[in-house]
């Protein structure tokens, strides 16, 4: 019989991190953290197979699902010592969607599910904090109405604002238990008025409503669009995570936050993150209050006055540092983490490999290998060629002023400044005379190659990320903005026009291929850094190449890419759309072999000419 529901919490779990396809990323990692013995609020995951079943069977669940969920919920009640729907001792849960890959198109999380007019009284008694109970209830009504019943936030904001105005208060924290109680009553009346139905009071009806909404959101327009953009098959489905609530909004010894085990923009090996005292999960992202730094060093760097978590809650901070350290060594990569502290007790709510910039990816890979966490080969394979390539280009000085003419697609990274030319032969002639040029074309074709090579950068009015211009530009290492649809080229007049503004051949423009921007005039640039981590990684790649590990690249093109980076035999080939022409391969190889800065720079100049 198919297992549709996987439990986690209380030091064990039915699933683990390897089961992302079945449990989704969030569910698989919650299971893994539980098995590691980390403090995870107990819960269960309804698998992606249920989602697939649901759509294959006219939006119906497998017959056993109701019983399976009931059994899983009973286990959670057992571990937590509370009962779902109980008035005296109510268990509350969150309902969280979770596909294999994180998907912004999916349903938002519902927190505090299980609250109703009776259980809210139980929560008030149990916590000894009536204000907290009604604050939680009004949050639940807003979230559930919004994501499950389809009644927008703004309706609730309006009611809240009316109350605040009448009471003469400006921030939510000034509202008392009695105030929230009245607001809750008005919220319920609002739902009934707008939807013609009372807000659901039965916790089980609430639960199934939220579960259904997660599965429904798999087919909403946002999710469909996102799947198309990222080649995610519809057949994958999403999982649903139901998890017992922990509360970061139970006073000054409670908090909620997010953390990265290393700095995601610089890669620096320092805990990085933000938290809010006396708040629930969504407050950190919602921007209602400004979060504070996790560490004392972070606070000082940001010049914040409010205490960091390290200073405000030193004991639980110490535990947290210990836990995130364990997570990073376990997953052997930088982690992006969500957590909550409930009255001095730490709870882990999510972990995943953190997204990072190219620069950070390089530093983290080199550092992890140097720390012995991963091998050198793995270190090399952790840096995508596209990221490395990005680091090899000059970039626009972030402090320089940008006057944007128009934007298109970020077809090939790097920045370049030059005079406008409209013709490949002209580009070649100008380059021979020592002029830097930007080739601007409707689109490019194979006859334009020599001109593209001679140009510092390429702009096209038509074409996507895999257009001729984009593919060739990436291969040559030329910055390129493609599909800048506002550009109208007049070949005869030797001009292009953008919304009425005319630019003539010979005028200077700058392009930022990483952002897809076309800019007025010359913009200051900064040189790529070839020292430090880059040099280290190149040296490792060279070592490995000398060891003649056989290429495991999947296609001849990939193998070529791998060889290009001197990393013969290493998985340096995950990005499909990287094409390198022979000049580029030769130059990168030369750069790897050069044993001094001047040699590397000379080699780089051949593929990424730097302009002062
Ligand atoms: P997203 O994918 O948008 O981050 P999540 O499901 O991770 O959505 O949750 C949104 C917020 O709610 C996060 O801050 C998360 O930590 C918090 N959260 C989710 N489940 C719980 C829970 N059971 N107890 C407390 N906070 C929770
Ligand atoms: Mg999350």
Q: Which strand order do you get reading across the main beta sheet?
A: 15-25-24-17-18-19-20-16
**CATH-wise, what's the superfamily of the largest domain?**
ATP-grasp fold, A domain
Report the span from N to C terminus. Answer: 68 Å
In DSSP terms (H or I, runs of 4 or more residues), the helix count works out at 23
Q: Estimate what percentage of residues fall within beta strands.
A: 15-25%
Which spans of ≥5 residues are poorly predicted at pLDDT below 50? 548-582
How many runs of DSSP E, i.e. beta strands? Answer: 26
Strand pairing plus helix content: what structural class? alpha+beta
> What's the architecture of the largest domain in CATH terms?
2-Layer Sandwich
Topology:
Blueprint: E1 5-9, E2 12-13, H1 20-35, E3 43-46, H2 48-56, H3 65-80, E4 83-84, E5 90-91, E6 93-99, E7 110-113, H4 119-127, H5 130-147, H6 153-167, H7 177-195, H8 203-217, H9 221-230, E8 238-244, E9 255-260, E10 272-277, H10 282-286, E11 292-293, H11 296-302, H12 309-312, H13 314-331, E12 335-342, E13 345-353, H14 358-370, H15 376-382, H16 385-391, E14 395-396, E15 404-407, E16 409-412, E17 415-421, H17 424-432, E18 437-441, H18 449-454, E19 457-460, H19 468-476, E20 480-482, E21 487-490, E22 495-498, E23 501-504, E24 508-512, E25 517-520, E26 525-526, H20 532-546, H21 556-564, H22 582-593, H23 597-607
Parallel strand pairs: 4-5, 17-18, 18-19, 19-20
Antiparallel strand pairs: 1-2, 1-3, 3-8, 6-7, 6-8, 9-10, 9-12, 10-11, 12-13, 14-26, 15-25, 16-20, 17-24, 21-22, 22-23, 24-25
Helix pairs in contact: 4-5, 5-7, 6-7, 14-15, 14-16, 14-20, 15-20, 21-22, 22-23
The structure holds adenosine-5'-diphosphate and magnesium ion (MG).
Adenosine-5'-diphosphate binds near residues 109, 243 and 349.
